[in-house]
Design brief:
By secondary structure, the chain is mainly α. The protein contains 5 helices and 3 strands; from the N terminus they run αααββαβα. The two termini are about 25 Å apart. It binds zinc ion.
Length: about 240
């Protein structure tokens, strides 16, 4: 450390630096979290869209099933007609009774198919209703999502501008800080969640809230060297002494 370095002055500079770094830390965090949040919303939207697609598929399957049933019904009707026509050309009573039974059976089958068809019609109506409502909701959500995205992009640009301004201010301050002190500060900043310097209040480090010894407090006031918190290793200072 250069001999003409005033520790008190250096601590004042570090406090200013910390104010900038706290803002930078917060902005960097936002810069990371905002797109993550945005991606989560987009993912949620896509899963809702998938849900609507699934309803659409269900409808398509039901329509196919409906067609099959309708074909089945037509076949039964044809068979029924054919047997009806044959009914009067039959010679024996036995044959006549057997044919009647056959026709009865076909009617019963038709009735079952008709019931099933009615159920499918109902279900298709319900699903179409559900699909249409879902589409309406998705349309609104998509509009909102695209507006949100715009807002996110604007905010990210703002953050970059703010970060550039802060980087400039930071440069001006670090030019005035002793290189060894700065290196120590930077190292703690990295290791201690963006807070490298902490004030002592009521004999407590405001970084880790552990006690600071009276001996250390006396040493801080002497400004012979930088004093570190024995618990969290942050640089310590006294607000009332620095007037910051
Ligand atoms: Zn501490």
């Amino acid at each position: 450390m250069a001999e003409n370095v005033s520790i008190k002055d250096q601590l004042q500079k570090l406090v200013q630096l910390q104010q900038l770094d706290t803002k930078i830390f917060d902005l960097e965090k936002q810069k990371k979290e905002i797109p993550e949040e945005s991606a989560k919303l987009e993912q949620l939207f896509l899963s809702k869209k998938q849900h609507a697609e699934d309803i659409k598929k269900e409808i398509d399957t039901l329509l196919l099933k409906r067609k099959e049933k309708e074909l089945g019904l037509a076949t039964k009707e044809e068979a029924s007609k054919k047997f009806q026509n044959q009914l009067y050309s039959l010679k024996s009573n036995k044959e006549y009774t057997a044919m009647l039974k056959e026709i009865e059976g076909i009617r019963a089958d038709k009735s079952v198919i008709e019931d099933e068809l009615l159920q499918i019609f109902d279900l298709v109506d319900t699903k179409k209703d559900e699909f249409n409502k879902e589409q309406e909701r998705l349309k609104l959500e998509e509009q909102k999502l695209s507006k949100d995205k715009e807002a996110v992009n604007i905010r990210l640009k703002e953050i970059d501008q703010e970060l550039a301004t802060l980087a400039n201010k930071r440069k001006q301050i670090i030019d005035l800080v002793d290189s060894k002190i700065l290196a120590a500060y930077e190292k703690i900043l990295q290791n201690r969640a963006g807070i490298a310097i902490a004030s002592v209040k009521n004999e407590t480090c405001q970084g880790c809230f552990m006690n600071v010894t009276p001996q250390d407090i006396n040493e801080i006031k002497m400004y012979d060297r930088i004093i570190f918190c024995q618990m969290c290793a942050r640089i310590l200072y006294l607000e009332e002494e620095l007037g910051v």
